Amino acid sequence: MRSEMSVFSSLGKPGFLSEIQAFIAITRREWTIFRRYPSWIIALLIWPLIFPMMYILTGRALSGPDGSGLAVFTKTTGATDFIGYIVIGTTVWMWQNIVLWDVGFSLRNEQMRGTLESNWLSPTWRFSYLLGHTGPQIISMAMFVLITAVEFGLLFGVKLHGSIWLAALVMLASIPAVYGLGFAFASLVITLKEAHAFVFLVRGLVMIFCGITFPISLLPGWMQSVAAWLPQTYMIHGMRAAAFANASLTDLWPDLRALILFGAFWLTVGYLLFTWMERRARQTGAIGQY
Amino acid sequence: MQTQLLSRPTLATQLRALFVIARKDWKVFWRYPLNAVSNVFQPIIWVTPIYFMGKAFSTNGQATGFAAYSGTGDYMSFILIGTVLSNFILTVFWGMGNALKEDMDAGVLESNWLTPVSRLLILVGRTLTSLLTTSITSLVMLAIAAALFGFRPTGNTVAALLTTIPMLLGLYGFGFAFAAIVLIMRDANTIIDVSSFLVQGLSGANFPVRSLPYWLIPISLMLPLTYGFDAVRGWLLKTSTLLPLRTEVLLLIIFMFVTLWLGAWVFYRVERRVRTLGTLGQH
């Protein structure tokens, strides 16, 4: 009897295949929820256009009726395409912003719906919950970027003066950093509960320091030092160079290397924070609290 | 058979209800002090890229291109005024629709609806605290922004403040209509987000509307807020206005009466429909 009691046998038989199945199930569920609320279509079509538009129209006002201001801007930034310059900066900001809300609040939303605790009891690798949220998110963001490119290409005549593949490569290299930050954030949100102010802080840092509408060289020295520690600075610089300055792979390498290093750092931080949060939540019983 | 109401609503009870709603919101707001900090710093964060972008367009600190459109090269004062006014616009635009959504989610909308208080008054009550907190946070924001970017109003502050009154009251009419949309759609976040962003943008919150592409200018001129932004800047910064200042103020007063009447009419029509369908408590 004693020997029987000492050996606990789980009914679940988790293996690699079952983990893949769980990941697919989570991804499918997220995709179904995403499609269930059709207002995303409006958001997906309109936001890529109107958010950069506000900066573009401000730039137009700063240019003056004779375009004299634009000549100064071109000289300062070296940008040949003012609209494309702004669109890339603002799109990177929107990407990080959406990831913070979507991936960062994914576990929190489960908690609010009351399903987090029951999901936590299933014999699945718990990190799958975050990864499962990420799959549909990456697809929707790819659609977002594509729609941005099409809308500005058709409506404003923005043309690529570089390689679409290299621009895509910079985006690909950015994924670990962007989503690693999202994972770290998700773990903090589940611990701190109401963390809207932190989203505002992180996206605010990107907005102020990363040069979404201006070259970093215009910032004071200390602000440039801060910018050097933010991966979005390299994303914006790399994508602008790849799309509009005809940069080669060698030219892009410093940005790509920084993005890969930041990606490894943020993925590790994201995973470690997740395991810490998971252990702490089990010990304190806080997983179902909200 | 004659029905007799147990409640005796008077002007005093209505005002008391208004005060109670505002006090409750005041307590809730200060329960989350980080929100107040966020309200101060968010607008500063949003205008910072414009500040540096303006530098990229300026020669020796002078935005001459901007001055040709607006009549002032002080683009940061121009934008900061737009930002403060936008804070108030958002309060009224979002305030009432969001408050209804919060009450729906919390499950208290139906019970609030049963009280013998005017429903429009319930909506107005939900904006009072927001207006007060927006005033406080906007003043702090303006003080910080003035230190960081510079803010130099040289004109008539009293006239500018008086001009904002019909503009804000007119916005209540818009707010009532938006609250009606929330009652029908239950979740109107995207619509409120997009429309308030567009309306603010096209009214010239961040730039003179003269600089808009020619096909957008007629839309901008049809929005009453355009004249509000323009007139307040005209008083404070002595910018060149679209119309004579007195004409713009007159337009704002007409806008106030029309939108208040129209917004209240739409709200009551929709509210009756929702009560008939029995969907008031659904969310």
Task: Give a written overview of the molecule.
The complex is a heterodimer of chains A (290) and B (283). Helix content of chain A is 78%, strand content 0%. By secondary structure, chain A is mostly helical. Chain A has one domain. Chain A is elongated. The mean pLDDT of chain A is 84. With 283 residues, chain B is mostly helical. In chain B, helix 10 packs antiparallel against helix 11. The longest helix of chain B is centred in the C-terminal third of the chain and has 33 residues. The chains are: A mainly alpha (290), B mainly alpha (283). The interface between A and B is large, with 42 and 44 residues.
* Rg on CA atoms of chain A, Å: 22 Å
Average pLDDT of chain A, rounded to a whole number, is: 84
- Termini of chain A, distance in Å? 41 Å
Query: How many domain regions of chain A?
Result: 1
Compact summary:
The complex is a heterodimer of chains A (290) and B (283). Chain A is an all-alpha fold and 290 residues long.
Topology:
The complex is a heterodimer of chains A (290) and B (283).
Chain A: H1 2-6, H2 16-36, H3 39-63, H4 68-77, H5 82-102, H6 106-113, H7 116-120, H8 127-156, H9 164-192, H10 196-209, H11 221-227, H12 231-244, H13 249-284
Helix pairs in contact in A: 2-8, 3-4, 3-5, 3-8, 5-8, 5-9, 5-10, 5-12, 6-9, 9-12, 9-13, 12-13
Chain B: H1 11-31, H2 33-57, H3 64-70, H4 75-106, H5 109-113, H6 119-149, H7 157-185, H8 189-202, H9 217-222, H10 224-237, H11 245-277
Name its key features:
heterodimer, A: 290 residues, mainly alpha, 13 helices, 78% helix, elongated, B: 283 residues, 0% strand
